[in-house]
Amino acid sequence: MQKTILLTGSTDGIGLETAKLLVAKGHRILLHGRNKAKLEDTQRLLRELNPDAQLLAYIADLADLDAVSRFAKSVLEETNELDVVINNAGVFKTQNPLTTSGLDIRFVVNTLAPYLLTKILLPGLDGAGS
Asked: What is the pTM of this model?
């Protein structure tokens, strides 16, 4: 059964490998990244693996909670079904440890952003609340 799956941090590492597996199984993937060129490269690669891949791509900087809110609202507006959210994006090492608002970027991206994203998306998740 095909699922619609949102995967944050889908352009590198574990996220990219997860996207490859999910596309190979025929799932509809909502890709997320913060770099447009990397997202486009990821889409090309996934379409090479599965020419019938159903992909949507979203650019958002998860260190910016306003951007996270806009990202989540875009997902809800652009898709009528969402089955799974995989909060994979994360920061470990960074040259700029603080966000523009003075918060630790690792805490924002690794903790606050996934919480906010999921909280906003929860009403759109298939079967949520039932």
From this structure: 0.93
What order do you get walking across the sheet with 55-59 strand by strand?
A: 55-59, 28-33, 4-7, 84-86
Nearest residue to 10 via CA among 87, 75, 81: 87
Q: Could you give the number of structural domains in the chain? A: 1
Taking CA atoms, 121 is separated from 31, 59, 96, 115, 128, in Å, by 15, 16, 29, 10, 10
**What tokens were used for 44?**
């090309």
CATH number, domain of 34, equals: 3.40.50.720
Tell me: the pLDDT tens digits for 4-15?
999 999 999 999
Residue 130 domain-assigned? no
